[in-house]
């Protein structure tokens, strides 16, 4: 009986790995965006250990690895799903590239990494898109820095909004009226934009003719 259960568990695991490998980049990303627990679990299981190993080898610890993983995941989730199917890399390689860039940038800021031409040598972005992708990540880091300075309630309102929830759904989740949510979201966005625009890094990342927008 136990051997049968063990065999069944092993076969289930094989089937799950096969299911994950059969997914396209966009379907994996959509699964994460939609809260598919199976896909999310497999994504963590496949990518977090690799990231931990990399960061532990490069002046970091496990807490750093978890922080970088979460930051990279937030950046990844804002990418259009279909755009990932146009790259020659798997979503896992693409994600790891984001993680490595985030960590190396942090080390440079902490003066633990000497700047060199090889800084981005193995990050899997394609050709002419490399610079724009780096700028994209830096802008997202600026946003994340100030997003974390909002109180938990305000963060949750924006998180629900960015997740595609309607004003009514957010109101029901948070226990507010729909009118209050609309007003609250406007005020939070205004506050967040103000904090971002006051950051010294803002003028370097955004030309004077462009204003940062939070959807």
Summarize the structure.
This protein is mainly α and 215 residues long. It is built from 10 helices and no strands.
Shape: globular
Largest β-sheet summary: none
Helix content: 55-70%
Number of helices: 10
Return residue spans where pLDDT drops below 50 for at least 5 consecutive residues: 1-22, 113-128
- State Rg: 20 Å
Helix-strand string: HHHHHHHHHH
Strand content: under 5%
Mean pLDDT: 76
Q: Structural class of the secondary elements?
A: mainly alpha
- What distance separates the N and C termini? 55 Å
Structure notes:
By secondary structure, the protein is mainly α. It folds into 2 domains: 37-141, no CATH class; 149-215, no CATH class. Helices cover 69% and strands 0% of the residues. The longest helix is centred in the first third of the chain and has 21 residues, at 2-22. Residues 1-22 and 113-128 have low confidence and may be disordered.
């Amino acid at each position: 009986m136990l051997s049968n259960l063990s065999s069944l568990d092993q076969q289930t695991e094989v089937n799950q790995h096969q299911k994950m490998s059969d997914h396209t980049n966009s379907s994996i990303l959509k699964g994460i965006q939609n809260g598919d627990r199976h896909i999310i679990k497999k994504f963590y299981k496949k990518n977090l250990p690799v990231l931990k190993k990399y960061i532990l080898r490069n002046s970091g610890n496990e807490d750093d690895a978890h922080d970088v993983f979460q930051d990279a995941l937030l950046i990844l989730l804002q990418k259009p799903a279909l755009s990932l199917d146009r790259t020659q890399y798997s979503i896992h390689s693409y994600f790891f590239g984001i993680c490595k860039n985030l960590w190396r940038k942090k080390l440079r800021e902490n003066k633990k990494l000497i700047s060199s031409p090889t800084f981005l040598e193995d990050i899997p972005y394609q050709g002419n898109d490399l610079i724009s992708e780096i700028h994209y990540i830096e802008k997202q880091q600026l946003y994340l820095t100030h997003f974390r300075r909002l109180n938990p309630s305000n963060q949750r309102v924006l998180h629900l909004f960015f997740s595609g929830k309607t004003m009514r759904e957010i109101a029901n989740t948070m226990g507010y009226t729909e009118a209050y949510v609309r007003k609250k979201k406007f005020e939070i966005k205004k506050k967040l934009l103000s904090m971002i625009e006051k950051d010294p890094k803002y003028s370097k990342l955004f030309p004077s003719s462009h204003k940062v927008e939070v959807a």
